[in-house]
Specification:
Radius of gyration: 16 Å
Number of helices: 5
Number of strands: 0
Helix content: over 70%
Strand content: under 5%
Length: about 140
């Protein structure tokens, strides 16, 4: 019951702050922005990790690696691109490509693999990255409403 209430509270805080990581590009603009950003990245990483579980990748290391990697991509790639390129579609395409490369790099290390790991093709990597980014974008949009 506590976890459900905490989740509901976080959703309400993000909604009241009218923040979306795409709409508000300044990460220092407030608590609502941080709630939406962390929620969107957490959901994205969780979905991608769940999908990668079917490819026999280790859950905890993959989740932690993807979370840190997505935070880095957001601050190092997304925000600077957002200020330079006016088309959100182009930026999201570049982010999906970067996420795909991140997933492929992570899948190459033994730390992130289980014993029965089957390799990931680039096609699967980009489909998985796109699925995670679509859910992340949608969550950020819903939380602002």
């Amino acid at each position: 019951m506590k976890n459900g209430f905490l989740f509901f509270l976080l959703l309400c805080l993000g909604s009241m702050a009218y923040a979306n990581p795409v709409i508000v590009p300044d990460p220092i603009s407030g608590f609502g922005y941080v709630v939406v950003l962390v929620s969107a990245i957490t959901i994205e990483v969780s979905i991608v990790t769940l999908i990668l579980m079917f490819f026999d990748m280790s859950v905890k290391p993959v989740w932690i690696g993807l979370f840190i990697g997505n935070l880095i991509l957001y601050f190092v790639l997304f925000l600077p691109l957002f200020h330079v390129i006016s088309s959100l579609l182009i930026i999201e395409g570049l982010i999906v490509a970067a996420d795909g490369v991140l997933i492929k790099v992570i899948s190459c290390f033994d730390t992130f693999q289980q014993n029965t790991f089957r390799g990931l093709s680039w096609k699967y990597v980009f489909v998985i990255a796109a699925a995670g980014n679509v859910v992340s974008y949608y969550l950020g949009t819903v939380m602002q409403a």
